[in-house]
Specification:
Blueprint (H helix, E strand, L loop, with lengths): L3 E2 L5 E6 L2 E5 L3 H20 L4 H33 L3 E7 L2 E6 L8 H28 L5 H21 L7 H14 L2 H30 L6 H22 L3 H7 L10 E5 L4 H9 L4 E6 L2 E6 L1 H7 L8 H4 L8 E2 L4 H12 L4 E6 L2 E7 L4
Parallel strand pairs: 3-4, 6-7, 9-10
Antiparallel strand pairs: 1-2, 2-3, 4-5, 7-8, 10-11
């Protein structure tokens, strides 16, 4: 894969199954945190081999963790593709990674979401098993390689355990919410259960990284531990707080249902002429989706047609349609997740496509120009 820079300071490494693999600039901070926390231990173990070996080992560990996170995200995406909902974007971020999915190509059930969510931690668990097998075999005799492999192996175990915790927005929380939804048919109950799990995890992090060192061990926690605990705790806690609707704005967002705001859409083949697109929009469609088989190529709306000016009616839709960013498609229909999706779409598109049970149900105007 050949890297290419993007307008947002991101870097696209390439594509897997048609979905771009994007590295955010914030992921560099995660790498620095790992390097800063790992350097003292490597230096104490391998310092006698020189600074080059120490720095090389630290760098190899950071790269190994990045690859592990990428494999974690690819497992989400490949599982979704196998079950009928292909990924449209992989991202490496400050908090590890994120996989975005497009609309389902077949009937979709909550248990499939659970399977996609758990595929990531399962992959890290397999990497941990592979690493332990390599370490225990005695085949690794070079000290630097052994230390880097040991670190990557145990970090994969940490990734597997941490991501499997029953707390939103972690994979375990997503899986728990989906399984409760599958069993009860109540999505809200699943999300609330996983959110309470999130608050419990935040309480556990506070105890392990702050209260226990101060009250039981009688020493100050390290700065790195405090930074990691604060960042992780904030991410989990704020997500759980929003889902539970414990604030005024959150209570308002909890009443949002995008399905009540959708406007009609028309799905048109790529070879459709602009004359036919105009006819579809005149017949009541607010947005035309241009498709090539199962692939969504882009969209055309009335303002977009006006911007084209004097383009002939025989021009085909695929030649002039606007590519729809991943942020302009959502499967979140209600509550804070829907509000967040609408906010994200407003930054990139005039429309937010609402996908309900694997079907594009309509388009919601975002207010963007």
């Amino acid at each position: 894969m050949s890297p290419a820079a993007t307008r947002n300071g991101e870097m696209t490494l390439g594509r897997v199954g048609g979905a771009p693999v994007v590295v955010s600039s914030t992921s560099l901070l995660l790498g620095l945190i790992i390097a800063a926390s790992w350097y003292p231990l490597v230096n104490s173990s391998l310092g006698y081999l020189g600074i080059v070996v120490v720095l090389g080992t630290v760098a190899a560990t950071v790269i190994g963790v990045a690859i592990s996170i990428l494999l974690h995200e690819l497992a989400h995406g490949l599982t979704g593709a196998a079950l009928g909902r292909p990924p449209i974007r992989y991202e490496l971020l400050l908090w590890g990674g994120r996989t975005s999915f497009g609309p389902a190509r077949r009937a979709w059930s909550p248990w499939r979401d659970a399977a996609c969510s758990l595929a990531g931690p399962a992959t890290n668990a397999l990497l941990w098993i592979a690493g332990r097998t390599a370490l225990d075999s005695g085949a690794i005799t070079t000290p630097a390689i052994y230390v880097a492999t040991w670190a990557i192996t145990w970090l994969n175990l940490a990734l597997a355990v941490f991501n499997a915790l029953p707390a939103l927005p972690l994979d375990g929380g997503q899986a728990l919410a989906s399984l409760i939804t599958q069993a009860t048919g109540n999505r809200a109950a699943g999300l609330k259960t996983a959110s309470w799990g999130g608050l419990a995890v935040v309480a556990g992090i506070t105890w392990l990284y702050l209260l226990q060192p101060l009250l039981i061990d009688h020493h100050r926690p390290s700065s790195t531990s405090l930074i990691l605990a604060a960042m992780v705790g904030w991410t989990i806690g704020s997500t759980s707080w929003r889902v539970l609707g414990l604030g005024g704005a959150q209570r308002a967002a909890a009443r949002l249902d995008l399905r009540t705001l959708t406007r009609p859409i028309a799905t048109l083949p790529a070879a459709t002429t602009l004359a036919s697109v105009r006819a579809a929009l005149d017949d009541g469609a607010a947005l035309a989706l241009v498709v090539d088989g199962p692939n969504l190529l882009g969209t055309i709306d009335a303002p977009g047609l006006a911007e084209l000016g004097a383009v002939g009616d025989d021009v085909t839709a695929d030649q002039v349609c606007t590519v729809l960013p991943a942020a302009a498609i959502t499967t979140s229909l209600t509550g804070q997740d829907a509000a967040n999706a609408l906010k994200a779409a407003r930054a990139v598109s005039r429309w937010l496509i609402v996908v309900d049970n694997g079907r594009m149900a309509g388009a919601v105007p975002t207010g963007a120009r």
